Amino acid sequence: MLERKALADLGVFGGSGFYELLADVTHHPIQTPFGPPSDDVAIGTYQGVRVAFLARHGRGHRYPPHRINYRANVWAMAHLGATRILGPSAAGSLQPHVKPGDFVVCDQFVDRTSGRASSFYDGPPVVHVSSADPYCPELRELAASAGRELGITVHDRGTVVVVEGPRFSSRAESRWFSQAGWEVINMTQYPEQILARELELCYVNVSLITDYDVGLEGQAEVEPVSVAGVIEVFNRNNARVRDLLLSVIPRIPRERSCICARALEGAMIG
């Protein structure tokens, strides 16, 4: 059973560097029923808000996407008391109008992963949580508004297709995803966001577009995606990610009126 402490108000998954902007940072090793999370959780404050930060891939980017312990990461945030999670991530574009450097506040996902532990409920009880609208509408609106105020090109909706990784897509796979009309491709969004929903946490993803995926060849200036190219764009725009997060955090209302807080109503059998 999840014991919720009162050490944090919200959680952030992301790359290193963000928590250095927080005050009074303490580091907390956490053990969970699902094993250890990717790293110790750093907790600090920003404008009176207690923020728990966890590097999704661990310090030094130790864990590839298919080896991240998503259940432990999300459980740790809830255990520390967070009721909301901000989940920025690097991602590729599947559509010409979604350009490198743009941000996409996703509203839908398509799961193309395999073998990942994607539920806290292995029975009993049996839980069928709805994923019709998997991202928090309140947080999505706040993130999109904050990004525009900072002068960032923000797409306020988009579907992210989540692939297993760690390899990048073949041209045929990428063309398939693009032709389906999906906007973003990523390796970490599933099951992170649906695990948050199972614990009735609000969750928002902000996808930083680092490249055009290879299936857009002929429609945009596309070269096969590379690690070096992704890192170059992400590092160049990392300050904008931090600025967006720091703009969103003080705006989040203390009370929740969204669907996320009631996600388990009617979802349990047994």
Helix content: 10-25%
3D shape? globular
> Which residues sit in consecutive blocks of at least 5 with pLDDT less than 50?
none
Task: Supply the number of helical segments.
Answer: 5
Strand content: 15-25%
Mean pLDDT: 92
Structural class: alpha/beta
The name of the CATH topology is: Rossmann fold
Structural domain tally:
1
For the largest beta-sheet, the strand count, sense and barrel status come to: 7 strands, mixed
List the helices and strands and how they pair.
Layout: E1 10-14, E2 23-28, E3 41-46, E4 49-55, H1 70-79, E5 84-86, E6 89-93, E7 103-105, E8 108-112, E9 126-127, H2 137-149, E10 154-155, E11 159-163, H3 171-179, E12 184-186, H4 189-198, E13 202-204, E14 206-212, H5 227-248, E15 268-269
Characterise the protein shown here:
The protein has helices at residues 70-79, 137-149, 171-179, 189-198, 227-248; strands at 10-14, 23-28, 41-46, 49-55, 84-86, 89-93, 103-105, 108-112, 126-127, 154-155, 159-163, 184-186, 202-204, 206-212, 268-269. With 270 residues, it is of the alpha/beta class. The chain has a single domain (10-269), classed as Rossmann fold. Helix 3 links the parallel strand 11 and strand 12 (184-186). It is globular and about 55 Å long. The mean pLDDT is 92.
